Here is the input.
Amino acid sequence: MAEKLKYGMVGGGPGAFIGAVHRAAVRLNDDAEIVCGAFSRSKEKGDETAAGLGIDPQRSYTSFAEMAKAEGAREDKIDWVTIVTPNNQHYPAAKAFLEQGISVACDKPLTLTVEEGEDLKRIAQENGCLFCVTYTYTGHVMAREARQIVRNGEIGKIRMVMGEYPQDWLLDTLETITEDNKPWRADPSLSGRGAAVADLGTHIENWVAYVTGLKIEKLACNLDVFGEGGVLDNNVEALIKFQGGATGMYWTSQVAIGFDNALKIRIFGEKGTIEFVQEENNYLKVSLRGQPPRIYSRGSGYLTDEAKRYVRVPTGHPEGLTEAFANIYKDFTAALRDKKAGKAVDEEGYGYPTIQMGIDGVAFYNKCVDSHEAGAVWVDM
Amino acid sequence: MAEKLKYGMVGGGPGAFIGAVHRAAVRLNDDAEIVCGAFSRSKEKGDETAAGLGIDPQRSYTSFAEMAKAEGAREDKIDWVTIVTPNNQHYPAAKAFLEQGISVACDKPLTLTVEEGEDLKRIAQENGCLFCVTYTYTGHVMAREARQIVRNGEIGKIRMVMGEYPQDWLLDTLETITEDNKPWRADPSLSGRGAAVADLGTHIENWVAYVTGLKIEKLACNLDVFGEGGVLDNNVEALIKFQGGATGMYWTSQVAIGFDNALKIRIFGEKGTIEFVQEENNYLKVSLRGQPPRIYSRGSGYLTDEAKRYVRVPTGHPEGLTEAFANIYKDFTAALRDKKAGKAVDEEGYGYPTIQMGIDGVAFYNKCVDSHEAGAVWVDM
Amino acid sequence: MAEKLKYGMVGGGPGAFIGAVHRAAVRLNDDAEIVCGAFSRSKEKGDETAAGLGIDPQRSYTSFAEMAKAEGAREDKIDWVTIVTPNNQHYPAAKAFLEQGISVACDKPLTLTVEEGEDLKRIAQENGCLFCVTYTYTGHVMAREARQIVRNGEIGKIRMVMGEYPQDWLLDTLETITEDNKPWRADPSLSGRGAAVADLGTHIENWVAYVTGLKIEKLACNLDVFGEGGVLDNNVEALIKFQGGATGMYWTSQVAIGFDNALKIRIFGEKGTIEFVQEENNYLKVSLRGQPPRIYSRGSGYLTDEAKRYVRVPTGHPEGLTEAFANIYKDFTAALRDKKAGKAVDEEGYGYPTIQMGIDGVAFYNKCVDSHEAGAVWVDM
Amino acid sequence: MAEKLKYGMVGGGPGAFIGAVHRAAVRLNDDAEIVCGAFSRSKEKGDETAAGLGIDPQRSYTSFAEMAKAEGAREDKIDWVTIVTPNNQHYPAAKAFLEQGISVACDKPLTLTVEEGEDLKRIAQENGCLFCVTYTYTGHVMAREARQIVRNGEIGKIRMVMGEYPQDWLLDTLETITEDNKPWRADPSLSGRGAAVADLGTHIENWVAYVTGLKIEKLACNLDVFGEGGVLDNNVEALIKFQGGATGMYWTSQVAIGFDNALKIRIFGEKGTIEFVQEENNYLKVSLRGQPPRIYSRGSGYLTDEAKRYVRVPTGHPEGLTEAFANIYKDFTAALRDKKAGKAVDEEGYGYPTIQMGIDGVAFYNKCVDSHEAGAVWVDM
Here is the structure.
């Protein structure tokens, strides 16, 4: 086996669900190990997480700044850092590591503003760093299959895109929010101008962009703040016009009773339609004109080679969220290894979502908020 | 048995699918019989249809005007006329019969303009006539169940409404349209300003209004004309704001490959959600907050009495389109019999969609076109 | 229009669900009218039903014997009689009409014994009568499509057949049965030796035979009588061996909580699989080896001509139980008209289930009971 | 963190899918690490796998015998060995480790004969070893929920059990089998008397036993060998009678076109029904008498505490096969830690499938073969 890569993490301390999933995904791949982290601002909590992961206590930090400085000074630098903090920390944390020549995998939304995102992109390039934005749902095997089907021209020129992402988890949270007890996602100073639109809306935007390559020309967006405790948007409705004539509608909600995490995207072309539902990620519905709809199953022999590369267990044996993350990391570590081996790396070609996709997501949700604030009018991207 | 009511039909000659369904629906109920018609402008075709239905050849006409005059002069007047012509004939035909004191069941969209609709409403009132607009999908048992669930407050105050109605039948038709061979739905002089938005969009609008009672405050709508042969809109996307704070999105399409007739409406309240899918009309999905989603089945003992009234065959034995129409006619003939018996008739109370709902539909699709023509901007209802 | 055929009915009085469905089905077709009946042994109830149907009071009878005699003596004999009585009356009633030269449409199970069935077959032939057994679920468009797919060899030689038909309606009934209050289905003297196995099991057996042509070689069957009030079988499990090497399993139940009327049949061949679910009768799932499963939709252009013949409303507009019955009657009246016109009639070729299929069903359920009574051992057909 | 446990593996070399899944599952839990293995009889292949896992080359063996001897002699003995060899090696390999005082996690079917299984049970007890049989599908969160629902009496006394497990993967393999190229599953000397019945049938048998506690009293079983290259059963149909009066049917197949890995089990009680489908393992359908069916979603607040203990990612974020394995290992390592800490360990109480369940599975499939060989007659368990 090639030697394992080394990585660190910022965020992901006790109680942080997403940090644990990132780490589990890397373990699934078994090609890298975590060696340092700033898991929490609390020394005690951070050390507890570090100890649980078997990390040298010397490499458990209480701030990304401290960590970037210390780790950047080592000869055996980590190959990358994963950033899973509240949104407002993405920019300064990523900047700190990039400036130390350390590549970054960062949660979405990438930053609070496009300017921050562009800044990170520039710094990464100047420092020869790679940058992956962990838009989870592009990691599914059937997302890769969908992308390849579109690229192969099987559904023809795209006419419409319908994306939705309803959840209902916020309902209970809403009722417990007080001035003194506010999750970071409900605090604009930590999460940015958008809540559902940034957290969920960008997943739709990215999945569509990743699979179709379509670029949004303009949009009109309405944001709702339902519930007593609501501060930021928890329901988002947008009309989209893409360059080239396609149109679409995006909806996301955190107060849609009966929906867990129901990302669903339908792409309609002149020759066919594909439908992806995250909660049924092992399948893809493909309808070609004049033919009965077909249900593609992950792992089947008829899939494209591009999708097959990511299959871990045989068809009918479900994969899920962790595998989606793992596939993104599999792409990212492949690029990191090539870079390490001195090969030229074109980040577009590895499959993971690039920093440009991160920037596009930030632009998207800010434009949604702009539109809403102006009365849900059309705004150009 | 009470004596059967008598009715006539305008439109519905050879090859006209919807006229045949109306007649089949009335036969299912077995409480009325067809006795006259102006099925076609072609004498031959009209007589052929009349003969097939066992109608006295003397009562087969070639125009609604002729028919209204002749039938209006009879002592044994028909109890109602069903109008299933191209859209532009709805107004003059309905007017002609109402002026003869004959009640009307008319296909949707009711008229080309709101003014025409208001005019019909006035004339109906002046002549003591009843008026039913045959919005099919309100006739399903589970539509009635949905309405009752909302009325009972089970899902609480409504926050969002998501309506969609994709089809793909137009694709083949589009390619065969020429100047000389144009179906009436593709000819603005016959169909009106809107195509998909009028034909399908009004079904969404009406179903939501019928079930929830919500009133649209304003909307922003984009219309697409895809395909070479396209003249009128075949893809419609609208943002909706309702009076009282609820919001929604409506989408309908005639070029959505893989979708047959997929009307689907989801209504999200503060306490629960209901989901109705026309193609699975024997079921209703009901999700209450904090509980697993439940699948209600038509005919089950736990349904409301209001819905049970319409059940024809036991649970698990599917009902379909024809039963939906039949339920609307069942409501309408109940009102007609009450009128005949001299009772006071409040049309709102019988369950069938009223002329006001027809007018609202005309207003809706015209506002959609207005919005689109102005750049998909927000317009007030 | 060709003149309407005339028919009568035995059974189907007030409260009898299935008689009403037969009549509604004939009305849907609009090619025949009911003119006489022995709807009930109660003069009052029978006359009430007759009056509701607009039948001449002179032609309302209180017994099939009286009706067969009176109607058989008329010059304008009815074209057929529909028999929807308790099972034990099928034989004597059908016999009485056949002996008058009147064709018969009879509910299943055809008779209590194979001998009775063979007797009816002989009498029908001797009297030049046609005989249709109304196995409902063969009437669905997608049953016809399934049959054609098998006949076309698309799924290859059949290896396995899995049939199931769970319901739960009996649960409530079971608790109300007393010696004095017993539905006929719970009384062996009226229903015969089998309950679920005869009422539901024969539907599986017939559907499979109808679609595949397979003949059962032997079977082993277990019958359960669950619940306090249970007298006859309400849960049936059978292993099947077909001539030619295919095998299968049939299960039916009347106490399977959560299932309404869930007939589901899967036929596995060397090249493909078809799956039909009665509650979703507008669809057929077809899986060919090495390809993604496909969902065929009733009314689509890619269906076989044999299936398309029966399509009434466009794809996506659901048909249901009544249409299935109507399709069987459509086949039957086509044969009756040919007979009337003096043409040679091969009943196999019209599509409706023949008396031989009725006899096969009686043989099937009696063999199931034989097997069970001997300890669920294998018995030859 | 508590120190990680250490384990080894027998089998699971290059190309062996299931060994890799076991290792991934342990990595997901992150509470144990692999330190030795006999991955292949080929020194080269075994060392390759060991190197890929970062295992000390000294602890890479070419036989379980060598490995058991060497590892058994170490002071820092491994905490357990995972055995994922062809079936015929389970017994000797497990025996060798148990005799060294090393606990065992063994794939199913446990052994070729009941005697072997009983022998292992005895040896394990004598040596103070724990023994887990990795029946995957009991590891799913919703399997645990199902078990708890049954234990809580929510569905009442069980009446029927319907289990099925169709696959179609064997079709391609069948055509490539020759005398010289035969997978171990097609070679009775390596796989035992049964193929599908042992590999898949035992999954049904165990899942039902695990969830319901029901004991099989007798069964009648037919085995089919379809296809030219077929040697052992690839289609299995069984009637089951349980102690206490419940009955059931089990079907499994490896030649059921269109089915990937479709384990589906329905348990019908006097008060309700539960339905579990492995390919949709994040859900459980629960139907209570007189109520609409409900869809339980993994991770929801309304689940039982017993199930919630195993939830890894929030509701709507799919878990899959690897998590199911990981849950079984989570139970097993909990027991191993308790044993290590000197606590009394009752293996029944930890949640993982015990050696007794393994023995029951071996008894089951051997009785199935017995029944088949005698003409599919009833045999007592």
